[in-house]
Amino acid sequence: MHDKTELLRGDHATISIIFRNLTGQNPVSPGYMEMMNKELGITIDPSKLWIGKQT
């Protein structure tokens, strides 16, 4: 997270980056999902994540 603003912006590019991080598609961010699980206090299931088409 860059200055903790990524989740707040909500634009397609940012959401795509977060999606790739959570699903392990971004090798630059290993451990991102584990960090987010800990920070948010929830369990994220990558198999249930999807991203819609950009409008």
Secondary structure elements and pairings:
Blueprint: H1 6-9, H2 12-22, H3 32-40
Tell me the series of helices and strands, N- to C-terminal: HHH
Helix content: 40-55%
Number of DSSP E strands: 0
What are the low-pLDDT stretches, counting only 5+ consecutive residues below 50?
A: none
What fraction of residues sit in β-strands?
under 5%
Integer-rounded radius of gyration:
11 Å
The global form is globular
- Strand count, sense and closure of the main sheet? none
The helix count comes to: 3
User: Distance between the terminal alpha carbons, to the nearest Å?
Assistant: 24 Å
Classification by helices and strands: mainly alpha
Mean pLDDT: 80
Top keywords for this entry?
55 residues, mainly alpha
Written overview of the protein:
With 55 residues, this protein is mainly α. The protein contains three helices and no strands. The protein has helices spanning 6-9, 12-22, 32-40. The longest helix is centred in the first third of the chain and has 11 residues, at 12-22. The chain is globular. 4% of the residues are buried.
In short:
The chain is mostly helical and 55 residues long. It has helices spanning 6-9, 12-22, 32-40.
